[in-house]
């Protein structure tokens, strides 16, 4: 006889139950964890701890350069081309925006690195609104030096500019104290020099710092009868923070109480050693009121500019920095911009911080002269802005009006 196991009613039910499976829920947590780990592994990208071009970043994260450029513009408010470099923080933000998990080369992070990242935030493309762009050395041409005038209140900064430009500007100022940043150009032996006047009063420390950050060099004006004061020391600190060289102008040497040697000795206490004391800081003893030794001061400005070898590419889209912005009757918002690269022209679309617009008029700093274009190191008043940009915002010419609006809108968000 043969015995068949599993036959009968109970055997058939067991067979069906085995085929259907059990209603009891299985523990699939390990399986889900494995799938999640595999997914994370596929989405994880390793970014080098150095800048990358837009094209290189697109290849690493598996996206097209066009997609990356669009994300930069519409989500981060950053203007960039395929060949432009993005800093590490911006690369990480783009990768995370595409759903990637970013791992460093050593995949180790600590609190000190986070603190360093916070300190470097102002150097990122997300902060400035534009990616780093290096010009071809063959396209670079000499440009005028940009000089900031700094010093203590009533030490003769504006009087020095008056003497250089041979024009009074204190008439419209309360008590003769400069309360806004103004820029002017002067000519010396056929060479143009751009001057930026900054306030010396303690209440305008922030404006003074912005002036330092836009200049190639700083003329520190110190009165020969008053020597070094608090705002003088603040100006020295601003110069060091901005990383630009100092030139010293000892003013008011025509006064009986003048003591230039004391000024130089006091400056040495702040580690500002002039040539007379064996240092490398250029110094001129002048009298703005009597127009004494101004040629000597301007010659030393040009000497310093020659050492710095200042160049820029005028044949590219314009880029500059907003010195100040205000609303004027009949003109609307007017921004005073110092051009740094390229040439801005009437009709150009642009973005400045969270504001955008189209250049309707370019007005010189005399408030009257109209220009068709303005090149590097040229201070210019621009009319045609929608919104009011902040001082220090980057001014950049955009491809078209829609691009400018999208960039400004993304930065506002």
Characterization of this structure:
The chain has three domains: 100 residues, no CATH class; 171 residues, 3-Layer(aba) Sandwich (Rossmann fold); 94 residues, Elongation Factor Tu (Ef-tu), domain 3, CATH 2.40.30.10. It has 13 helices and 21 strands. The chain has a six-stranded mixed beta sheet with strand order 7-8-6-9-10-11, sandwiched between helices. Helix 9 runs parallel beside helix 10. The protein is elongated and about 135 Å long. It starts with 7 loop residues before the first helix and ends with a helix.
Architecture blueprint of SSEs:
Blueprint: H1 8-20, H2 29-43, E1 44-46, E2 52-53, H3 54-61, H4 65-76, E3 85-86, H5 88-97, E4 101-103, H6 111-119, H7 125-128, E5 141-142, E6 146-151, H8 157-165, E7 182-188, E8 191-197, H9 205-212, E9 217-223, H10 230-242, E10 246-251, H11 260-268, E11 282-285, H12 294-308, E12 311-312, E13 319-328, E14 332-341, E15 344-345, E16 349-352, E17 355-363, E18 370-371, E19 373-374, E20 379-386, E21 394-397, H13 401-412
Helix pairs in contact: 3-4, 4-13, 9-10
């Amino acid at each position: 006889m043969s015995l068949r196991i599993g036959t009968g009613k109970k055997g058939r039910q067991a067979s069906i139950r085995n085929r259907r499976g059990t209603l009891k829920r299985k523990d699939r947590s390990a399986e889900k964890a494995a799938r999640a780990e595999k997914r994370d592994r596929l989405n994880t990208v390793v970014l080098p701890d150095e800048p990358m071009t837009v094209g290189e970043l697109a290849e690493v994260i598996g996206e097209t350069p066009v997609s990356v450029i669009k994300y930069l513009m519409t989500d981060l408010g950053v203007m960039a081309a395929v060949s432009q470099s993005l800093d590490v923080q911006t690369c990480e933000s783009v990768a995370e925006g595409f759903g990637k998990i970013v791992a460093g080369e050593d995949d180790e992070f600590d609190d000190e690195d986070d603190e360093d990242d916070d300190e470097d935030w102002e150097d990122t493309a997300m902060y400035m609104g534009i990616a780093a762009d290096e010009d071809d050395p063959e396209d670079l041409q000499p440009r005028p030096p940009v000089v900031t005038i700094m010093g203590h209140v009533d030490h003769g900064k504006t009087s020095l500019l008056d003497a250089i430009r041979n024009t009074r500007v204190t008439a419209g100022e309360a008590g003769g104290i400069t309360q806004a940043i103004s820029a002017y150009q002067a000519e010396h032996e056929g060479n143009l020099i751009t001057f930026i006047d900054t306030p010396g009063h303690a209440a305008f420390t922030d404006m003074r710092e912005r002036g330092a950050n836009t200049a190639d060099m700083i003329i520190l004006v110190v009165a020969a009868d008053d020597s070094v004061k608090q705002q003088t020391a603040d100006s020295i600190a601003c110069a060091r923070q901005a990383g630009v060289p100092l030139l010293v102008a000892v003013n008011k040497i025509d006064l009986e109480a003048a003591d230039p040697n004391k000024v130089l000795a006091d400056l040495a206490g702040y580690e500002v050693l002039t040539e007379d004391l064996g240092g490398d800081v250029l110094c001129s003893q002048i009298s703005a009121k009597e127009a004494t030794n101004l040629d000597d001061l301007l010659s030393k400005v040009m000497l310093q500019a020659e050492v710095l070898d200042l160049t820029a590419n005028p044949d590219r889209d314009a880029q500059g920095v907003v010195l100040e912005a205000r609303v004027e009757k009949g003109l609307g918002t007017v921004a005073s911009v110092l051009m740094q690269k390229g040439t801005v022209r009437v009709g150009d679309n642009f973005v400045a911080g969270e504001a955008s617009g189209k250049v309707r008029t370019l007005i010189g700093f005399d408030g009257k002269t109209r220009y068709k274009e303005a090149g590097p190191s040229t201070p210019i008043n621009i009319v045609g802005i929608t919104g009011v940009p902040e001082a220090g915002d980057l001014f950049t010419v955009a491809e078209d009006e829609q691009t400018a609006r999208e960039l400004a809108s993304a930065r506002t968000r």
